[in-house]
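Q: My labmate handed me this sequence with no annotations at all. I'd like to see what the chain might look like in three dimensions before we decide whether it's worth expressing. Could you predict it?
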Amino acid sequence: MKKQLITFVALVALPVLTFAQTADEIIEKNIAATGGADKIAAVKTFQFDQSISIMGMDMTGKSTVVVDKSIRNDVTVMGQQMTTVVDGDKGWTINPMQGGTSPQPLPDDQLKTQKGNMHLFGTDLFVAKDKKYPIEFVGKEKLGDKDVFNLKVTRPEGVANYFIDATTYQIAGMNAKVTLQGQTSDIKIKYGNYKPMEGLNLPTSLDLENPSMPGPLTITVSNVVFNPKVDPAIFAMPK
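A: Here is what I predict for the chain of 239 residues:
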């Protein structure tokens, strides 16, 4: 009778124990799959090129980031360059596509969103753990044909759900609510084409959907350079 009782308890407990993988365990495995905390933390600055495609229109871009401090994005479309910069708690932009040729301060909501991007792409969960953002394990589900773990992260700029591949523990996707120009919208990103880069494994393609955009946007990352010397003057707002 005792053996039967132990067997019964084991069978009942098995689904609970299988499901009870914690957010901390998932994040630790994600960080390990990315290359490890030491490798991620060692990146203080980085630059990369972007190829951007939306609705048959192709653009190119270059980004420079000083982790947790500054970011500059330059995007060229139809022969014109759009620039967006955040430096500390301030930001500015030049957008000739909207008739602007002189720098303008970034609105507060755009500033807040851009500040959330001042880290190495694909390392969001490392950042969430390091900054002690509230994290909740929602459960295991499907993202397309992949089994994924759903982690809800409350970031300063909004709530984001990260979908972690249950096999590779790499970030497969992210859904977030973002408020821009007074409008709250749902952003969806799919991460793919992970590649090894100096001991790190990072996504090099991102498919982004946002109801405010005319269609899906695809970003392809290339020419990543870690820890280049960055001149602080590139973040200064032109006079």
